[in-house]
Design brief:
This protein has 325 residues and is mainly alpha-helical. It has 3 domains: 76 residues; 115 residues, hpI Integrase, Chain A, CATH 1.10.443.10; 78 residues. Helices cover 51% and strands 4% of the residues. The protein is built from 15 helices and 3 strands. Strands 1-2-3 form a 3-stranded antiparallel beta sheet. Helix 1 packs antiparallel against helix 2.
């Protein structure tokens, strides 16, 4: 079996298991172009090491590629097509200093109002209405992009007002309630876009051809929308706002809304972790620690050390900050 054939069979197996755009396929294609169409069992750890050390490769990108190749080789090692994993030693990765982007509510409105202009070309694969509902779904649920694109029509229960979200990790599922506004939005989209003669896929969100939307297509569409809307990072920042940052934005906006209304965070933060599919409270606290600098000092006060700080509700400066968000 040669490398290109192995990649194709691996991708087909992942898609048959429910992955719309299997994670790790892109690095495999890059490896195939780098090494050539050689026999799968002829790939060496030295070749893979040189490929991973390509130009302009950050530590995060190196690790992402390494994990993608590891999963690929484990797949074929289990099927006895290769005897060992042709991988170099894994490099130690320094702690990430990356800070995700938190959209303001004004920026969310700007993105939504720019959708029609961004999607006016006939070559656009995603209708403006679909893109609008999809962005509001991501912002309103904190779901991962892959989870939203994997969502099937039969997993949206309009009668019970809940949706079932399937994670691509460990086959986990969670059923969450949705607010009335989002429910009405999804119902309207369902009535207009789910005509039997036009649907070619069981997914809830479909492109113009009635097919499932791929993550690659959605990411490109969002990049164009963000440029049209003029939502950019501050000058000098190398990372621009991402579609995935809607998940972080959901978490931060939800916590600040709870604080403004005097909710008990000891109860609500664990609920937030379950709602967005995090394994535990530590993962949810990570969202708070990774919020941008303009939020960090205030949000650090949400988890005071016992006996050393007063409650957040007794802090006038914090309450003033929250009311101005």
């Amino acid at each position: 079996m040669n490398l290109a054939e192995g990649i194709q069979l691996y991708a087909d197996a992942k898609r048959s298991a429910g992955a719309l755009y299997p994670d790790g396929i892109r690095p495999l294609g890059s490896l195939s172009r780098y090494a050539g169409n050689v026999p799968l069992n002829a790939i060496t750890a030295k070749q893979v090491g040189l490929f991973l050390q390509g130009p302009r490769t950050s530590e995060g990108t190196w690790l992402q590629k390494y994990n993608a190749l590891k999963n690929f080789f484990l797949f074929w090692c289990a099927r006895q097509e290769i005897s060992t994993l042709p991988l170099p030693p894994r490099q130690p990765i320094a702690a990430s200093t990356f800070v995700p982007y938190i959209y303001s509510r004004a920026e969310i409105r700007q993105l939504l109002s720019s959708i029609r202009s961004a999607q006016k070309r006939n070559s656009c694969k995603i209708e403006a209405r679909t893109l609008r509902v999809l962005l509001l779904f991501l912002y309103g649920t904190g779901a991962l992009v892959s989870e939203a694109l994997r969502l099937r029509r039969d997993e949206v229960d309009f009668r019970k007002r809940v949706i079932t979200i399937r994670s691509n990790r460990f086959d986990r599922r969670r059923t969450i309630p949705i607010c009335p506004d989002l429910l009405r939005l999804l119902w309207g989209y369902h009535l207009r876009n789910h005509r039997k003669e036009e649907m070619k896929s069981p997914q809830f969100f479909l492109n113009k051809n009635g097919e499932a939307i791929t993550e690659q297509s959605l990411q490109k569409t969002f990049q164009r929308l963000r440029a049209v809307a003029g939502v950019v990072h501050e000058e000098g920042e190398c990372y621009q706002p991402r579609l995935h940052d809607l998940r972080h934005t959901f978490a931060v906006h939800r916590v600040t809304a709870w604080i403004k209304h005097g909710a008990d965070l000891n109860r609500m933060l664990p609920a937030l972790a379950v709602y967005i599919g995090q394994v535990g409270l530590h993962s949810t606290n990570r969202y708070l620690r990774l919020t941008p600098e303009r939020f960090r000092a205030q949000l650090d006060k949400l988890s005071p050390r016992r006996g050393k700080r007063k409650r957040w509700r007794d802090d006038p400066a914090l309450m003033k900050f929250l009311t101005e968000l």
